[in-house]
Amino acid sequence: PPSWDRAYRQSPGLPLAPCRAFSNNKIQVDLDESSGVAMMKFKSPPVNSLSLDFLTEFSISLEKLENDRACRGVIITSAIPKIFSSGLDITEMCGKNVEHYGEFWRAVQEIWLRLYGSNMVTVAAVNGSSPAGGCLIALSCDYRIMAENPKFNIGLNEAQLGIVAPFWFKDMFVNVVGHRIAERSLQLGSLHPAPEALKLGLVDELVPEEKLLEKASAIMAQWLALPDHARQLTKSMMRKAVLDRLVAHREEDIKYFINFISKESIQKSLRMYMEMLKKRK
């Protein structure tokens, strides 16, 4: 990977920590070499929507970290107040050609395969609402901490848009919350306020917003106290079947997405949803 810019960061009351930073247009990454922990912040206003450009940058950032021996874990959060990520960018799925839909969907698959299968410890510090694809990113991490604010919600709400969460979204969701909760939540396209998300096991912990990153760092330290190889092999054992299922059916899944999203009825649903969002503004 390209070399990173070298920088030094002063933490309050601590000596200078060597820190390597690289920033794309939409994602800021800082790696603290002394702890081996990277901080990844989404910064794509207004709502960190997962456009093709965003997904590409996200993949490249993860790959750089994964290939860097100094990095053992990454905390993923948002630089934009009140929103973690609004999910997949609807404009990428509306009124485009078949080639574009295929390229976009491959990028969605890629980010999930990288994040869910990562050797690093991944902690989501969810500091705002996290619907659909935003929820997917949080679910892909090893641990989820959410800001203790009932106005923030999280869930796979695809059904509300007239679209269907793919089988691999569903498989991972079932692994986290169990079959019955996943079934009900997916059918209704539910968005769960933070306290309810905790009760359902969708997030592991709620903390006051101002303590979110401090808590994420403490959890990270706890996970990194274990030998990497034991944790990585255990993670692979737990997640391999779900990852392998997408890898085996990747092309089929892309074709299904293209056929589904190209239907006029689905395009109409998406256009209506986009109109509703414009009116809300």
UniProtKB/TrEMBL annotation:
Question: What GO molecular functions are on record for this protein?
Answer: delta(3)-delta(2)-enoyl-CoA isomerase activity
Enzyme class, broadest EC rank? isomerase
Enumerate the CDD domains for this protein.
crotonase-like
Q: Which reaction does it catalyse?
A: (3Z)-dodecenoyl-CoA = (2E)-dodecenoyl-CoA; (2E)-tetradecenoyl-CoA = (3Z)-tetradecenoyl-CoA; a (3E)-enoyl-CoA = a 4-saturated (2E)-enoyl-CoA; (3Z)-decenoyl-CoA = (2E)-decenoyl-CoA
Which Pfam families did the record assign? ECH_1
Enzyme Commission (EC) number: 5.3.3.8
**Cross-referenced Gene3D superfamilies, in alphabetical order?**
2-enoyl-CoA Hydratase, Chain A, domain 1 (3.90.226.10), 6.10.250.170
Bilayer-crossing residues are none
The source's domain of life comes to Eukaryota
Its GO CC terms are: mitochondrial matrix
List GO BP terms, alphabetically. Answer: fatty acid beta-oxidation
Keyword presence, Mitochondrion: yes
Q: What does this protein do?
A: Key enzyme of fatty acid beta-oxidation. Able to isomerize both 3-cis (3Z) and 3-trans (3E) double bonds into the 2-trans (2E) form in a range of enoyl-CoA species, with a preference for (3Z)-enoyl-CoAs over (3E)-enoyl-CoAs. The catalytic efficiency of this enzyme is not affected by the fatty acyl chain length.
Sequence similarity: Belongs to the enoyl-CoA hydratase/isomerase family.
Q: Which protein are we looking at?
A: Enoyl-CoA delta isomerase 1, mitochondrial
The protein's organism comes out as Neopipo cinnamomea
